[in-house]
User: What shape does this take?
Amino acid sequence: MAHYVGIDASFETANVCVVDDDGNLCLERKIEAEPDAIVESVQ
Assistant: This one.
């Protein structure tokens, strides 16, 4: 099953959203806008 990731980034924070093929929400988080934090949030 495929998953799709959307990231809305600002200077200090990023909102990460992951949905599956059916449009079901799998993950939604507000995190620091740092590359390591973004990668860690979706693993």
User: Anything to note?
Assistant: The chain has a mean pLDDT of 89. The chain has one domain: 3-41. The beta strands are 3-9, 13-20, 25-32. The radius of gyration is 11 Å.
